[in-house]
Design brief:
By secondary structure, this protein is mainly α. Helix content is 59%, strand content 5%.
Length: 184
């Protein structure tokens, strides 16, 4: 789960099945009842109908938690933490960053750093579209060292300068669930 809509879909599915939850958060659900295999299978099918997946594999669960931390850090915070992404993720997850980064690369086929960059670019697009901040403010908000650094990374990923993107009539954005594989 990487968005509020995902959380709503999960809550609705649990309610429909008469299951009571303690926590429905990005990447995890804690249910009060013990689930039989039949109920688990029904829940899995219901979630799949909403485009979600029930995961039991510890690696998959850890990857989803990493994704949730990245999405929260970039898309749902007022500003990106002023510490290194590696330190922030490691502190939030309670694991060594190298372990998390290696696991992420192994499972997702892209580096965790590249995944973070892709999300930052989507956030930049969103902030450009909103038009409330200038490029200097966006660079500061997303913890770039300069507007030039932001612009270079934006151009490398999208093929456009931020100012060219701003002028486009049809501004293409990617749903958060699909962000992750952008070119180097």
């Amino acid at each position: 789960m990487v968005s509020a809509r995902c959380k709503i879909a999960v809550k609705e599915e649990l309610k429909k099945m008469g299951l009571h939850y303690i926590v429905v958060d990005l990447g995890e659900v804690e249910i009060m009842e013990e689930l039989s295999q039949d109920i688990r299978d029904t829940l899995k099918m219901g979630l799949m109908a909403s485009g979600l997946e029930l995961m039991d594999d510890k690696k998959s669960i850890l990857i989803q938690k990493i994704i949730a931390v990245v999405v929260e850090m970039i898309h749902h915070s007022d500003e990106v933490p002023k510490v290194n992404h590696s330190e922030y993720i490691s502190d939030k997850m309670g694991y060594d960053y190298t372990y998390l980064a290696n696991l992420f690369s192994e499972v997702k086929g892209t580096t965790l750093q590249q995944f973070i960059i892709c999300h930052k670019i989507e956030r930049i697009k969103e902030l450009i579209i909103y038009g409330e901040l200038n490029m200097t403010e966006i660079a500061w908000k997303l913890n770039y060292s300069s507007v030039a650094h932001l612009s270079n990374q934006f151009r490398k990923i999208t093929g456009l300068s931020p100012s060219h993107f701003k002028k486009l009539k049809d501004k293409k954005r990617t749903p958060l669930e699909e962000v992750g594989e952008c070119k180097d």
